[in-house]
Amino acid sequence: MTHEGTGAWVGDQVYDEVAGKEGVITDVKGCTFILREVYSWALTWTSHDAETLQVTIPRQERIKRREER
After folding, report:
1. What contacts 19, CB < 8 A, 6 or more positions away?
2. Among 25, 36, 58, 68, which residue has the fewest nearby CB atoms (within 10 Å)?
3. What is the pLDDT of residue 3?
4. CA nearest to 10, candidates 26, 30, 32, 33
5. What is the C-alpha to C-alpha distance for residues 42 and 18, in angstroms, rounded to an integer?
6. Closest to 3 measured CA to CA, from 54, 44, 45
7. What value does the CA radius of gyration of the chain take, rounded to a whole number of Å?
């Protein structure tokens, strides 16, 4: 399942143009995306505009890379 506007969904690593940083989508509630820092579970923020999220590494690619370690 993906968001129709951007293709971004839970597990995807994205660049948030508004926040100016990269993160991983951890949840979607309505039209609000909840993101965390790439290397931290504690630092989170939200995005209300899916159009500002650009997928940099899709979830499937992140899983593949983790399995190759």
Report:
1. 35, 45, 47
2. 68
3. 52
4. 26
5. 20
6. 54
7. 11
Q: What are phi and psi of 59, to 5 degrees?
A: -55, -45
Say how many residues make up the chain.
69
Nearest residue to 31 (alpha-carbon basis) of 56, 52, 62, 11? 52
45: Cα within 13 Å, side-chain hemisphere: 16
Most distant pair of Cα atoms in the chain: their distance: 35
3-state SS of 28-66 is EECCEEEEEECCCCCCEEEECCHHHEEEEECHHHHHHHH
Contact 8, 57 (CB under 8 A): no
The DSSP 8-state label assigned to residue 10 in this structure reads: T
